[in-house]
Amino acid sequence: MNKDIARVLVDRYTIQARVFNMAQEIAACYHDSDDVVMVPLLTGSIIFVADLVRHLPMRMRIDVMAVSSYPGTATTSQGAKVMYPAEFHVSGKHVLVVDDILDSGKTLALVTDLLKKSGALSVKTCVLLRKKIATTQSMTADFIGFDIPDEFVVGYGLDYNHYYRNLPDIAVLNPCVFEKK
Ligand code: 5GP
Ligand code: MG
Questions:
Q1: Does residue 65 have its Cβ closer than 6 Å to ligand 1?
Q2: Cα of 81 from ligand 1 centre, angstroms
Q3: How far is CA 120 from CA 48, 113, 116, in A?
Q4: Does residue 155 have a pLDDT over 70?
């Protein structure tokens, strides 16, 4: 796997330190809420959310949601679509959506809208990464780990064609990996 990596953009130690700080920011924001619903977006956020929630002291539910936007070998957004679940039980709850990366913002816009329509009391968003291009978009996130350049990244949960999620760092792939597809 390591031969496929062109360069590391954010290493594992920097990620861990920032995830800890983000958890402090989130805990401060929800300090008086004792019934939060975390909504991790599958599959890219699994490693991030697993690290994040273990630093969060408040009582919470973790209800995963599957949204497809980069199917298979796609490296640009194909438009967001919710695949799971069919219904959201968030009425009267404070919801925190957790995703791996904010790119066009379509995913977070779609999910935030659905959760609000399902009766959530509040909906906030948290992403580990924000692509530079996203800073010019209208959709932003309430909690952001790192701003990164507009490049396709993998690792720490993020995939290319279902692979590289287990890489501990956030990295850019060698161009030959895309040529092989
Ligand atoms: P948006 O809807 O904001 O354009 O895209 C967000 C989703 O696209 C993320 O949840 C993530 O699944 C996927 N995505 C966006 N940029 C990247 C990237 O650089 N690498 C990977 N692996 N997925 C990305
Ligand atoms: Mg995603």
A1: no
A2: 13
A3: 23, 10, 5
A4: yes
